[in-house]
Amino acid sequence: MSQAFDIAVVGGGILGCATALRLAEGGMNAIVIEKSDLGQGASGVNAGTLSLQIKRVKLMPYALRGWAKWQAMGAAIGFHQTGGISLAFNQREADLLQERMTMKAEAGAPITLISGRDARAREPGLSDRVVAASWCPQDGHANSSLTGQYYRHQLRDARIAIREHCPVTKIDQTDRGFVLHGYGETIHARRLLLACGGWLKGVAALLGVDLPVRARVNTVSVTERGPRIMNTVVGHATGLLTMKQKTNGTVLIGGGWQGRGSPMNGRGLVDRDTLIPNLCLAQYAVPEIARLRVLRSWTGFEAHVPDFNPLAGALPGTKNAFVLGCVRGGYTIGPYISELMGDLILGRDPEMPLFDPSRPFDIETATRRIL
Ligand SMILES: Cc1cc2nc3c(=O)[nH]c(=O)nc-3n(C[C@H](O)[C@H](O)[C@H](O)COP(=O)(O)OP(=O)(O)OC[C@H]3O[C@@H](n4cnc5c(N)ncnc54)[C@H](O)[C@@H]3O)c2cc1C
After folding, report:
1. What is 81-139+214-304's CATH topology?
2. What ligand 1 atom has the least distance to the C-alpha of 46?
3. What pTM, to 2 d.p., does this model score?
4. Could you give the 3-state DSSP secondary structure of residue 54?
5. Fewer CB within 10 Å, N or C, the chain?
6. 11 alpha carbon to ligand 1 midpoint, in Å?
């Protein structure tokens, strides 16, 4: 079987699906090709936190606009605006919080610094060890396990072709575009968008392009259901904790603690040496969590490049091919940056600047503190 499209999008995560929707709005005949089910990569296993407090300063304008898209998607994707509190347990953490949150507030996030007492007034379950905190009324969460089903409906309504369980294993470039080979199928497309998350490096290599992409192996845990012990998204000055109680009473605990493995070898493994400190920090922040049993912990791959900015633009050295990925906080920012990417491919001027994948990558920047 062989079919021709205006554009083939490889990767059915939030970035691939949301960009395909924009392209279809702009009149392109698009296909989304996904090796598993839609939304089963990072976009479906993440912690679902829509927190401005844990976004990078540089990406704040994108995060604010992404947040507005989530608000508009609403209940269909489990959107909840709860407010969020980031905690400091000592003066050093309070100073760090002040430095980081002041910059984020200057970048447009409605974040204020509050005392430990004010934090406990908003969130009574917090430990009395909290000495200072920051508060953002916009923070909240959505249900990442709904990503696939949400976008499948959207893509179908927009009459976008979908191929699931179709890993792209070979891509040929011809004078008429691209020929993609998946399971028993050959797909022809005039343009190509790679939106394959943690797998970007391997898929770009099919076109002979070496992207400096690495994958982090983030861990998330969920507890059993329990009585209500928190109402907001609770974080920590270092960014090493995000925690929220869902409406069903379970508590989701994350914070970017690293598991093991690589995208080429399945979903990655939970590492008890990082899991336990993650859970201890959660319990230190909200002591009542100790009463709940952790039911499950899992990992997912989050791609990044050395400067921790997104890749969003033309694929280096490959005519009519584009790449979108490595967006830190990409669940929050995804619905917006994908529209910008779609506009670029459609030949429109994106409302905000994108992030040229051909920029030089200075390995030194990889070791700088990420704000
Ligand atoms: C555990 C975890 C927690 C996170 N928590 C948050 C959070 O709370 N808030 C937040 O804003 N961000 C969070 N993130 C980041 C966010 O989830 C990601 O930035 C975002 O989901 C990336 O979307 P994506 O579409 O680029 O990647 P993905 O969702 O990974 O999608 C890429 C898709 O490409 C497919 N694919 C790969 N290779 C091929 C191939 N050869 N052929 C066809 N398809 C292929 C994959 O199967 C996958 O479905 C978290 C990430 C992780 C991993």
Report:
1. D-Amino Acid Oxidase; Chain A, domain 2 (3.30.9)
2. 3
3. 0.96
4. coil
5. N
6. 9
